[in-house]
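Predict the structure of TRAP-type C4-dicarboxylate transport system, substrate-binding protein.
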Amino acid sequence: MLLVAVLCLAACGAAPSGAPPGVTTLRIGDSYPPSHPASRDGVDFFVERAVELSDGRLAFDYFPSAQLGEAEDHVALTRSGAIDIGVVSPPYLADRLPLSNVADLPGMSTDACRPAAALSELMSAGGPDGSGAGILHTSEYGPQGLRMLFVGVQPGYEVMTVGVPVTGPSDVAGLQLRSSGGVLDAAVDALGAAPVSIAGPEMYEALSRGTVDGTTLPPMSATPYRLDEVATDSTLGAPLGSFTLSYTIGERTWRELPEDLRAVLTRAGAETTAHLCRGIEEENERARTALAEGGLHFTQQTPEQVAQWRTALEPVRGQWVADMEARGLPGAATLTAMEQALATAERGGSDG
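Done. Here is the predicted structure for TRAP-type C4-dicarboxylate transport system, substrate-binding protein.
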């Protein structure tokens, strides 16, 4: 009902206003609390840079914490114009943006900055005429009426368990693990465990009651739920996968903006992608420390164990490609483009 109400407000022209003449106000919506890096190092930084670069000609109304809808609602909100810029999280939208889960595949990357740089290339809308657009824009974001402004990747998904230490992939077999869906479900399944869908706020109770044996999460996502109070053990360095989030502007809103403000948003977005990835990595490190101090025991994976994880999870990529191709989607081309973009990011960018 909330989504319907917001869409109605947009259609009826009841968007917030009051900006001075000559100032364009854009509405941003997402599902993250203000303390989350996506808000703090993403939206807040983006807003600050866009206002500065536009000399105050841009202003923003920000609606965090799912005020206007849940995470999966923001595609419809952004496309309809109910909001101008919204979070788009491919793992929650596997039916609409399946290719955009490519960065979340196991073993793709263990840091936040390289995959974010690679996705920026793949999600780019290209030049004004569309030339140079990335494969994820031409295949998914563009057809959905969306343009990526900045992107973030939460890496470092680990296996956190209750009373069952996990020192390698063989220890996961037979467990029931909470999973956030998408390719992570496939990773859990490939390890011989059963993926279970449980909302984040319900994880604490599910772990304490033994409904599941554990969960798959990056440390920064475990601290808000106080999982160190119920989970006893966690891997450290298992290449399970990542979680992609992007902030997009609706194509209709984009076309209505003057060219110089489009350039401002593009530049602010690029700077935000670089800033956000560093914020995510710092937050993950702080979270690991806090969880360890709270009693969660981390088992650092040795190079040999990491190799075992990669071997166990390797079939997930091939199956993902096969699934995409079976749906008539360019899975192989997307995976190749992602791997090439990651290699470029590893070298510090292209020479051109």
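Residues 1-16 have pLDDT under 50 and may be disordered.
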